[in-house]
């Protein structure tokens, strides 16, 4: 069983999906990606999750993020489940769902945790950068629905901090002040952060979010 850690290359794979065959890296192209797994088709919590993601897809598109789901059931089962999702969640599923009957992708991404279930995937989330590296891993138990507002918040932070020498503080939301990297000296701050900064402690310096007008 593979073990994937932050900063690792996201393993590539080819798989069937509800939108045709996917070569994962080719499908991602120069986009960021979210790969998230579901224990099985026709499960109640996951039905609400897939419907929610369909509604949030414009927000992911705005951030250049492609979404792909996965379940260990087959393609025909997926198609029937999509009909149920669209009906019960008042939406239209607008992203691919991978059919992983042989659990090849599930095992590649360590999505099966034997102490939780020796058959079904746990509810994993992987955020993958445009460099094909793993930026975030979250694993949820089957009983707790995922918070996609939080996932968008984290993607905003990841994309901001990938290109600016900042970090985001607790509960940060897009548009709020950010932390200047400790590696930046006070002498460097005016050139890098012309909006100014506030020093709370020598190691805690705040500045307005640099990628906003």
TrEMBL record:
User: Which residues belong to any copy of the Thioredoxin domain?
Assistant: 4-160
- Organism, by scientific name, is Mariniflexile soesokkakense
Q: Output the superkingdom of the source species.
A: Bacteria
Q: Which family does it belong to?
A: Belongs to the peroxiredoxin family. Prx6 subfamily.
Q: What is this protein's name?
A: Peroxiredoxin
Which terms does the record give in the GO molecular function aspect?
Answer: thioredoxin-dependent peroxiredoxin activity
- Where, by residue number, does the polypeptide cross the bilayer? none
Q: What EC numbers are recorded for this enzyme?
A: 1.11.1.24
**Enzyme class, UniProt record, top EC level:** oxidoreductase
Q: Does the keyword Oxidoreductase apply?
A: yes
Write out the entry's keywords from A to Z. Antioxidant, Oxidoreductase, Peroxidase, Redox-active center
């Amino acid at each position: 069983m593979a073990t994937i850690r932050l900063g690792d290359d996201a393993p590539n794979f080819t798989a069937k999906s509800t939108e045709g065959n996917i070569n994962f890296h080719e499908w991602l192209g120069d986009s960021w990606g979210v790969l998230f797994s579901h224990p099985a088709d026709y499960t109640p919590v996951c039905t609400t999750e897939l419907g929610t993601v369909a509604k949030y897809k414009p927000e992911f598109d705005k951030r250049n993020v492609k979404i792909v789901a996965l379940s260990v059931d087959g393609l025909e089962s997926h198609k029937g489940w999509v009909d149920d999702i669209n009906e019960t969640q008042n939406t239209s599923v607008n992203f691919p769902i991978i059919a992983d009957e042989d659990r090849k992708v599930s095992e590649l991404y360590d999505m099966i945790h034997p102490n939780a279930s020796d058959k079904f995937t746990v509810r994993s989330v992987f955020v993958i950068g445009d460099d094909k590296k793993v930026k975030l891993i979250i694993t949820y138990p089957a009983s707790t629905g995922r918070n996609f507002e939080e996932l968008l918040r984290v993607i905003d932070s990841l994309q901001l901090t990938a290109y600016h020498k900042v970090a985001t503080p607790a509960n940060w939301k897009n548009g709020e002040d950010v932390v200047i990297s400790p590696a930046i000296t006070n002498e460097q701050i005016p050139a890098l952060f012309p909006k100014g900064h506030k020093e709370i402690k020598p190691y805690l310096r705040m500045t307005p979010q640099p990628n906003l007008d």
